[in-house]
TrEMBL record:
A Pfam family recorded for this sequence: SOS1_NGEF_PH
InterPro entries hit by this protein: DBL_dom_sf, DH_dom, FYVE_RhoGEF_PH, PH-like_dom_sf, PH_domain, SOS1_NGEF_PH
Source organism phylogeny: Eukaryota, Metazoa, Chordata, Craniata, Vertebrata
Localization terms from the record: Cytoplasm, Cytoskeleton
Keyword Amino-acid biosynthesis set for record: no
Organism annotation: Phaetusa simplex (large-billed tern)
CDD domains: RhoGEF
Name by which UniProt lists this protein: FGD2 protein
Keyword 4Fe-4S: no
Length: 304
């Protein structure tokens, strides 16, 4: 007899979980443990660096190995008399918030591995040595570290599929739908954490280019667009190179600095978006020109 579709998906969840736990074991019990041991002996890199690279991988490993995987195994053994996994996944979901920490740290971790591999040959050798082992399957540490980042989206896909294939009268329907909703929220939460972190990093980089002027540095601003622009001077019919930063609340009209010490730009003018108007001009001598008028003043600009 053909296995029901939903059971196949539940089995796939179990099998991928087993493979995932061995990947976590490799990260936590092999890479982390051995790199930490060498760091303690003072042979490779500071202990702090190893901790920063692996973030909270130990908690993630313990949770999956000691709790989630055994619970899933129990469920699949009892499938014939109790075909359900929704309740187990509901227990899992709140703990997945732990991933926020790991995922947010991921880019930093990869940078640290690269930086210290160049700086400390013994550190690089130890990683290379572990990577040669059979358990690593010819893949790099960075590659293995990507796995937890991809795990939550994988749960989401499998569970979506599972709910879709459940017969309407299945005893697992309510639980599975609720579980899917919970996983969906966690996935959104970890994506939002990454997006917010990227936004703040980009914003900070822009503020540095502007010389960190006090009245401009505000974490709630959003940069919408930036780029070079020509300022048209009607007095002597010439243009000069300027630079614009458009935020959700203000337009910064800047001059590129010739000597770039610290900042790249000098802010010459700031026009509030509130009450600002933009109008295209049909100027035969200067094509692609437009007029920006705001409370502070009016500018005639030419785009590329």
């Amino acid at each position: 007899i053909q296995e029901p579709e939903e059971k196949k998906i539940a089995l796939e969840l179990l099998e991928t979980e087993q493979a995932y736990v061995s990947r976590l074991h490799l990260l936590d019990q092999v890479f982390y443990t051995e790199l930490m041991k060498e760091a303690k002996n003072g042979k490779t890199v500071p202990e702090e660096v190893v901790k920063m690279i692996f973030s909270n991988i130990s908690s993630i490993y313990q949770f999956h190995a000691k709790f989630f995987l055994p619970e899933l195994q129990k469920r699949m053994e009892d499938w014939s008399c109790n075909p359900r996994i929704g309740d187990v996944i509901q227990k899992l979901a709140p703990f997945l918030k732990m991933y926020g920490e790991y995922v947010k740290n991921f880019d930093k971790a990869v940078e640290l591995i690269t930086f210290w591999s160049e700086k400390s040959p013994p550190f690089q050798e130890l990683i290379a040595d572990i990577q040669k082992r059979k358990v690593c399957a010819n893949l790099t540490l960075q590659h293995h570290m990507l796995e937890p980042v991809q795990r939550i989206p994988r749960y989401e896909l499998l569970l979506k599929d599972y709910v879709r294939k459940l017969p309407p009268e299945s005893p697992d329907r309510d639980d599975a739908e609720k579980a899917l909703e919970m996983i969906f929220m966690v996935a959104k939460h970890s994506n939002a954490a990454i997006a917010e972190m990227e936004r703040l990093q980009n914003l900070w980089a822009v503020y540095q280019r502007l010389g960190l002027e006090d009245d401009i540095v505000d974490p709630s601003n959003e940069l919408i667009k930036e780029g070079p622009i020509q300022k048209i001077s009607t007095r002597n019919n010439s243009t000069s190179e300027k630079y614009l930063f458009l935020f959700n609340n203000m337009l910064l009209y800047c001059v590129p600095k010739v000597i770039q010490v610290g900042a790249e730009f000098q802010v010459h003018l700031r026009i509030d978006v509130d009450g600002m108007k933009v109008r295209e001009l049909n100027d035969t001598q200067f094509p692609h020109t437009f007029l920006v008028s705001g409370k502070q003043r009016t500018l005639e600009l030419q785009a590329r």
